Amino acid sequence: xxxxxWLAHSLGGKHRVFDMSFEDRFFGVLYAIxxxxxxxxxxxWWIFLILSMALTVLAVVAKGWAVLDDFIRFxxxxxxxxxxxxxxxxxxxxxxxxxxVFVRYVMSVGAxxxxxxxxxxxxxxxxxxxxxxxxNSEHVRVDIFYAKASARRRAVIDIFGTIFFLLPxxxxxxxxxxxxxxxxxxxxxxSDQTGGLPAVYFVKSAIPMFCFLLGLQGLAMIARGVLVLxxxxxxGDETEPALxxx
Length: 246
Known about the structure:
The chain is mostly helical. Helices cover 72% and strands 0% of the residues. The chain is flat.
């Protein structure tokens, strides 16, 4: 089921695909696509990368530095929406904690799923809100040199730190976590404890999403730093994210 042979067999005129469950069909197509992607020669990926970079350069030439401004505003708004929506999960965590206490100490019933209802949403909220936290500069930062630095010096520190520390780490985590999450989906993984909640694959999928959203915000930080260094209008002396400018 995990190869292109599955897809060819399913579409071979016998219509067996219609006799399969939705999960078998969905994951069969997913793995078939993955198998086809794996067969793409490396040189085609390099061509794709070069073309992407060329299109980016052309966009910059066509619109100027405004392209970076548009990118920053898009990423800021995306993480702002995701962060504010994710914040409601903490309400669910509090309600889940209350439920666990009530079930365990009032009804004298021990239930593993009540622990999952606290831990899982908390983990998802932590990962999905990481980009929003970076947007608002709320991550832990060593302020020995940064706090009293000028806008230009802060921009240099942001660019250097993002390129050499944040992005390599996120790429490594995404490289490891993406197959980890896909494997969980492939077996429709549930909690490893008896009586736990199903659908643990949703929790594991939050790890690649964490890398994606935080990575986008890191790229926006680099773009913002570049605009500060060149003195682009609205970025020279700003101390807050561009989102606050409309």
